[in-house]
Write a structure and sequence with these properties.
The protein is mainly alpha-helical and 892 residues long. The chain has a domain of 172 residues: Arc Repressor Mutant, subunit A (Orthogonal Bundle), CATH 1.10.10. The chain is built from 38 helices and 15 strands. It has a 3-stranded antiparallel sheet with strand order 1-3-2. A 3-stranded antiparallel sheet has the order 4-6-5. The protein has a 3-stranded antiparallel sheet with strand order 13-14-15, with no helix packed on it. Helix 4 packs across helix 5, helix 5 runs antiparallel to helix 8 and helix 24 crosses helix 28. It binds a DNA duplex (15 and 15 nucleotides) through helix 10 and helix 17. Keywords: Activator, Cell cycle, DNA-binding, Nucleus, Repressor, Transcription, Transcription regulation. One of its GO terms (cellular component) is RNA polymerase II transcription regulator complex.
DNA sequence: CACTCCCGCCAATTA
DNA sequence: TAATTGGCGGGAGTG
């Protein structure tokens, strides 16, 4: 159609034609053949494209490049075909016949054919819905405009809306990068959350529109000032910090789009009438609701609606009310936004080429995490780009008047964020109370993270950010590495531990902050502590900025660094850095996402950044955050040791993040990632038997730490980004136990004695045999029994050992070899593979099913320990679940 | 006539 | 200053 138009109508077309068609149609030249040509023209073009269209889509999935190229050409075809297809053709023919000459031309271009919706479809057709992570698709506005045969202005309309949903992001002038729908669910989720804050009340009431409106206004006044103030944090700015002003009024379209979507997401009926939406939007923006404004708003809404319709998120409907029928749109997109990993996983596999690289990391995150991860990923990608990418405007200026505004907003936002957070937590089912409590209990500075999060502006991130997980530090503990839990607390250090660690290969790793210890055994363990959103959030913050968080956050994470290494080792030194940045970016991005005010600018806090990590390249990223782990990587085992030594306690934890480099690690090694700290922990642990790829490695994950961290490589190779410790079984042999005091330490510093006590225990464990992996959380200890479990059989649930009391754990570390699991905390142990004793789980034992475990954070025995993060955790958990499931499956 | 929403002027922002 | 973005609203196409 376009072609038609072009030939006839559009002057521009000529150019477009050629370019547009690209190679294929020559025949179709723009000429206007009065007669049949029309049709012919159409035909030819379409044909070439159409046929392929479907294929190409598929292909696109397969090969990006191809798809891009082809899609461009074809894409619109399909659309056209679908919509217009028959009609136009037939018409055309007729027309042709009738009015051989000019007339048809006029008709062709019917307005509909030029609609923004159609244009958007064409636009979308050019890009894969779920581009591989590896490929980065950039969109040139000029190019697209010419290809689609429209003025740039129109492209802006589309892109702005897509940008609001994060399907694309502005990279530079005239350049946008295509993200596809990977993040869509995340974005929608955020919008929904944000929407609930802003409009929740409104919609809740079933809406009568008026009611809604009414409420809306009311609400607006009361609670959400921000929207008016500065609704637009949206994107970039917030994070960027300065935020430059919101540029222009601009963003209006973007913001409007987000708000519009929010209305749908919040609405129970999922139907929003234009006029209501317009009113709401107007009000937010302005108080005056003059008619002209209304009209303008409606116009814009149509624009947005057209794009959303093209995206398949809404459809037009009519609602008849008393007074008649009103145009409205119904949301037909996803309503629930679990984090989805979706395709990512599938895609990811391909991506990993880079072992240690960022990318890899990113991927993992993605994998592990849900949508968030995706973001992360993007972020990483974007990393190259400035955060601002989103907005050109971002001015760096630190403080500008705008800023002030922002600050104000920030405060508001913060509040909102807090609210959101709470909400989220609650929603998640976590117990918010717990969280807090936990915090308190935890006190340890670092750990407390969760708390801080709340208050901190960063929170907003929380709400906003989906990605948090992206960041966790991962450490690989390779062979040699040992980290002593010592760090955990100064107190904590345990002689034994260190010794142990070293002893053998050093495999056993302790992570200072981390709660868990892993031993390699044949089977794999995964422990998940609190994975949570919170964690995530925390993590994010770190990256971001947020000083506040930093402290708390340390926990947060360093950008994950190592990620993927699973298969490879990560090692790339450079990677870490990158990761970090990306993380930051992510944050930004995330923030940006938030439409409303959610995003909060970071506050100035000081965050001590982690020191740069020593040698490990990867580590760099990590350090930031804080992880305190030590990794002992082969490379720098020493370092690891050192750190451990340090008093981790609160302070240190922050800093510590050290990673080690993966490089050195032998492939099989374990990675340890840790998170640390900060957080609340979650009691959940997963034990995974080694999958094929894993062989002897065991993984432990602490939920808390790395939310998204755990991800399994596509191949099954598990890659851990999580704060986990993996120990090669071999290494473990001698050491059964690992203790990480750190974690707990923060909360409850473990008495030295306790720890030591534990140590002994461990030894005893030795009997277990190498196979048996033992994890000890400061809080909890788990002993998985590996199939071969030696005499000590963990299986019995009832083991006395199991009971190590949480107390111990908390206080210090409890360790038990015998019992399959010991938990200080309400940790849940999951065994995926082994059936062994079901009962293994300590208190919280949930049913063997992983899912169950994950899902129910609540089960945690100690609320205190685990705090609030749960909300986050939940998310994390979910991600974890996935992974676990995956992993489990693989092993199975 | 009401609904849609295309079109493109022109200002704000950037480069 | 030129170019890029994008707000905005007139007014045309549709039903």
């Amino acid at each position: 159609e376009n072609i038609f138009d072009r030939s006839r109508m559009a002057p521009k077309t000529p150019i477009k034609n050629e370019p547009i068609d690209l190679s294929k149609q020559k025949g179709c030249t723009p000429e206007r053949n009065p007669i049949t040509p029309v049709k012919i023209i159409d035909r030819p073009q379409p044909d070439p494209w159409t046929p392929t269209a479907n294929l190409k889509i598929l292909v696109s999935a397969a090969s990006p490049d191809m798809r891009d190229r082809e899609k461009k050409k074809e894409l619109f075809r399909p659309i056209e075909n679908s919509e217009q297809s028959d009609t136009p053709d037939s018409l055309q023919y007729d027309i042709v016949d009738d009015s051989t000459v000019d007339e048809f031309e006029k008709q062709r271009p019917s307005r509909k054919q030029k609609s923004l919706g159609l244009l958007c479809q064409k636009f979308l057709a050019r890009y894969p819905n779920y581009p591989l992570s590896t490929e980065k698709t950039t969109i040139s506005l000029d190019e697209v405009a010419s290809i689609l045969g429209v003025e740039r202005r129109r492209i802006y309309d589309i892109v702005n809306v897509l940008e609001s949903l994060h399907l694309v992001s502005r990279v530079a002038k005239n350049q946008y990068s295509w993200h596809g729908r990977h993040n869509l669910s995340q974005t929608l989720k955020l919008l929904q959350e944000a929407g609930e804050l802003q409009y929740g009340e409104l919609m809740t009431s079933q809406h009568k529109e008026q009611d809604l409106e009414y409420k809306f206004e009311k609400r607006k006044k009361e609670t959400i000032p921000d929207s008016q103030n500065r609704p637009l944090l949206d994107f970039s700015e917030s994070d960027c910090s300065s935020a430059s002003a919101n540029s222009r009024k601009d963003k209006s379209l973007r913001i409007m789009s987000q708000k519009f979507v929010m209305l749908f997401l919040v609405s129970k009926t999922k139907i929003v009438t234009l006029d209501i939406a317009a009113k709401i939007l107007i009000e937010e923006t302005q108080d005056t609701v003059d008619h002209s404004k209304f009209k303008t708003k409606v116009r814009r809404l149509y624009d947005i609606a057209n794009v959303l319709t093209s995206l398949g998120l809404i459809k037009k409907v009519h609602v008849t009310e008393e007074r008649g029928r009103k145009p409205a749109f119904k949301w037909i997109g996803p309503v629930e936004f679990p984090e989805k990993t979706d395709e990512l996983n599938g895609h990811s596999p391909t991506s990993d080429p880079l072992p240690g690289t960022q990318r890899g990391a990113c991927v993992q995150y993605q994998t592990s995490a849900t949508g968030k991860q995706r973001f992360t990923r993007h972020a990483s990608f974007n990393s190259a780009q400035p955060c601002e990418a989103n907005r050109r405007k971002v001015s760096s200026e630190p403080n500008s008047p705008h800023q002030e505004k922002q600050d104000e907003n920030c405060s508001k936002m913060i509040n909102l964020a807090a609210v959101c957070r709470q909400k989220i937590e609650e929603d998640t089912g976590n117990k918010a109370g717990d969280t807090e409590t936990i915090l308190n209990s935890t006190k340890n500075s670092n750990i407390t993270l969760p708390l801080s999060l709340l208050p901190v502006p960063g929170d907003s991130d929380f709400c906003v950010n989906p990605l948090p997980q992206a960041v966790f530090p991962v450490v690989q503990a390779d062979v040699p590495s040992f980290s002593l839990p010592v760090g955990i607390s100064s107190q904590a250090s345990h002689p034994s531990t260190p010794a142990a660690s070293k002893t053998e290969n050093g495999k056993p790793t302790l992570v200072p902050n981390q709660p868990f210890l892993c031993f390699p055994s044949s089977s794999l363990f995964m422990l998940c502590g609190g994975l949570q959103e919170n964690n995530l959030s925390k993590l994010l913050p770190t990256a971001g900025n947020l000083g506040n968080r930093s402290a708390e956050a340390q926990a947060a994470v360093p950008p994950a660094t190592c990620q993927k290494r699973s298969s490879h080792k990560c090692s790339s030194p450079s990677a870490p850095v990158d990761d970090e940045e990306p993380a930051a970016k992510k944050q930004m991005l995330e923030r940006s996402f938030l439409p409303l005010s959610l995003t909060v600018p970071k506050q100035p806090s000081e965050s001590p950044k982690a020191e740069s990590s020593p040698g490990s390249g990867c580590s760099a990223a990590v350090h930031l955050e804080m992880d305190h782990f030590d990794l002992a990587s082969p490379v720098a085992p020493e370092a690891a040791n050192k750190e451990p030594v340090k008093p981790l306690d609160c302070q240190e934890q922050k800093k510590q993040s050290q990673n080690k480099d993966p490089d050195e690690l032998p492939p099989g090694n374990e990675h340890i990632s840790r998170e640390n700290a900060n957080q609340p922990f979650q009691p959940q642990y997963l034990y995974v038997q080694p999958a094929a790829g894993l062989n002897s490695f065991n993984f432990l994950f602490s939920a808390n730490q790395a939310p998204g961290a755990i991800s399994l490589a596509a191949n099954q190779m598990p890659s851990l980004s999580v704060p986990c410790v993996m120990v090669p079984s071999a290494a473990l042999a001698s050491f059964p136990l690992v203790c990480s005091p750190s974690f707990t330490s923060p909360l409850a510093p473990v008495p030295d004695g306790s720890f030591s006590a534990a140590a002994p225990t461990n030894f005893s464990v030795s009997s277990l045999a190498s196979t048996t992996p033992v994890f000890i959380n400061t809080t909890a200890v788990v002993t998985p029994k590996v199939s071969p479990a030696p005499s000590v059989e963990p299986q019995q649930p009832p083991h006395p050992a199991l009971h190590l009391s949480p107390v111990l754990t908390r206080s210090g570390n409890a360790v038990k070899l015998d019992s399959p699991v010991c938990m200080g905390h309400p940790v849940t142990l999951l065994k995926l593979q082994q059936p062994s004793s079901a009962p293994l789980t300590p208190k919280s034992i949930r049913p063997a099913h992983h899912e169950a475990f994950f899902k129910t954070p609540g089960s945690l025995g100690d609320p205190v320990a685990w705090k609030k993060h749960e909300g986050n955790q939940t998310r994390n958990a979910s991600s974890v679940q996935r992974r676990l499931e995956i992993s489990s499956t693989s092993p199975d």
